[in-house]
Write a structure and sequence with these properties.
Rossmann fold, 13 strands, 16% strand
Amino acid sequence: MSNKTLLLTLDFPPNKGGVARYLGALAEYFSDRLFVIAPPTDQSETPHTFSLFHQPLLCRYAWPRWLCSVWILWKKRKDYTQVLVSHLLPLGTAAWTASWFTRKPYLLVLHGMDFRLALCNPYKRLITRIVLSQATCVIVNSDALAKEVQSHFTVKHLEVVYPCVDPVFLKDHLKENRSSTTLRLLTVSRLVSRKGHALVLQALAQLKKEGLLIEYAIYGDGPEEQTLKQFVIAEQLEENVHFYSCTTDEQILEAYRHADLFVMPVLDDQQDKEGFGMVYIEAAAQGLPAIATRMSGVDEAVIDQETGILIPSGDVNALCEAIKDLFFHPDKRLAMGERAKQRVRSEFVADKQFKKLASFL
């Protein structure tokens, strides 16, 4: 395994979050150039072509906990020529510390929440400044995050590499015949407050009173599930809203095939902020336009009035108007979906995005 990059990460498939998917796709694209060390998992692994090893990366009892990763980087120093880490704190700190002993450079994959948490106190800002300044390359998933990083710190090289759609979501499916009288909405995400499910339900309650026929499928699970279900019961939306959890990619693909419109009006939380929104792109790959929030990062995944509609954060009236616009103008909705589909297939694929890192890996 000499002359290879070691990808060291706390979040990796079979985990299903955006960071895990991003890194899994990156590892697959550069499978002949890197190997991966990630924490142990009890989930079933998906097939892959790269070398993957499982080890605890954080100490259970010792402090600082990232010393475990420093030890791994020291023990494996003959197996790699450079390190690629996600999670600025703590793995970026571990890579920087280890570099003093191993003399091996490191690259850093940076995500929005990861970066904002690193700014929350003076000590973390100092460590962040050091870790970012010494990285060979800092890789970010949106132009908005790139500008945010540059406004705070100086880095040697900053590369914007957008998330890439899993090939499974690029499969063409025959769309079923859609009712002209019922609009089918879809959200795929964790059931947490910032994703905006509650706002959609409020809009549906209002639109139902106006006589619009709308079905809403919610795919995902999370801490807000019971609260959302209680709202559905209170507003007598049981026939309109359906919840689905523990879903596979194939089930989600089927959901895209049945839907008319993807809707995820995330809230503009400055700490836990939606950095991009990979699900907008996955939905677009299947020809679905999206209703999303007008905020940095998200406006790179959904282009307002071209591939979807952007609304102000938390504005239920604007959400109602956007839904009605695409309800009463199906030709507009279909045209947006087709533009969204073509954009994804030309821009958000590995040969376009991950290829940017070929000179670094």
